[in-house]
Design goal:
The complex is a heterodimer of chains A (114) and B (117).
Chain A lengths: L4 E3 L2 E4 L5 E6 L6 E8 L3 E9 L2 E4 L8 E7 L2 E6 L8 E8 L8 E2 L3 E5 L1
Chain B lengths: L3 E2 L4 E5 L4 E7 L6 E7 L6 E7 L4 E4 L2 E6 L4 E6 L8 E8 L12 E2 L3 E6 L1
Parallel strand pairs in B: 2-11
Antiparallel strand pairs in B: 1-3, 3-8, 4-5, 4-9, 6-7, 7-8, 9-10, 9-11
Classes of the chains: A mainly beta (114), B mainly beta (117).
């Protein structure tokens, strides 16, 4: 029973480069969430999807961030251009539906922007 | 504006004793609460949850207590084991008036639990 799969696990890149983070949710889960974890702000929700449709992107920090979910088994979070302050651990999570079902997290992508 | 607060950054307990982790919230609209455990280099793992219609939920060694009037919840681990050493996050969400969970989780900053053998 595969969990949420994120890739890459680590990404180091230079400021100004485009970064793409990937997520495969658990099969059958209708909701997908992108979170960012930093020392200053803790775990914060960036955006979430329901049935591949973005529902709430109010947590996306700025226009440099974008997220897509082209199908039920794949989502991307893109940062273009990247900046050092984007350095953080980015988590993807999925859940079957709201009905008080917990979200299942991937192991995250540790992003370092130099 | 931190709506979910875990005021203790760390907690150290002896193996076999009780661990009590605390969480306070400010948004009275929250009505579903969860605890997650996180090991280094891994994602948070769901541990236990409680709905606002209850004041206690138990699952093995883990019990969550909810005090709505005080806007406070706590996680009790009895007995504590070295494998419980991890970061524990409290999270909260709310249901809309129609009864469908809104579902957006707001997390606390986490408490590092260390259980000494």
């Amino acid at each position: 029973d595969a969990g949420v799969i994120q890739s890459p696990r680590h990404e180091v890149t230079e400021m100004g480069q485009e970064v793409t983070l990937r997520c495969k949710p658990i099969s059958g889960h209708d909701y997908l969430f992108w979170y960012r974890q930093t020392m200053m702000r803790g775990l914060e929700l960036l955006i979430y999807f329901n049935n591949n449709v973005p529902i709430d992107d109010s947590g996306m920090p700025e226009d440099r961030f974008s997220a897509k979910m082209p199908n039920a088994s794949f989502s991307t979070l893109k940062i273009q251009p990247s900046e050092p302050r984007d350095s953080a651990v980015y988590f993807c999570a999925s859940s079957p539906d709201w009905g008080n079902q917990p979200q299942h997290f991937g192991d995250g992508t540790r992003l370092s922007i130099l | 504006d931190q709506q979910v607060k875990q005021n203790s950054p760390s907690l150290s307990v002896q193996e076999g004793r009780i661990s009590i982790l605390n969480c306070d919230y400010t948004n009275s609209m929250f009505d579903y609460f969860l605890w997650y455990k996180k090991y280094p280099a891994e994602g948070p793992t769901f541990l236990i949850s409680i709905s606002s219609i209850k004041d206690k939920n138990e699952d093995g060694r883990f019990t969550v207590f909810l005090n709505k009037s005080a806007k406070h919840l706590s996680l009790h681990i009895v007995p504590s084991q070295p494998g419980d050493s991890a970061v524990y996050f409290c999270a909260a969400s709310r249901q809309n008036a129609g009864g469908t969970s809104y579902g957006k989780l707001t997390f606390g900053q986490g408490t590092i639990l260390t259980v000494h053998p």
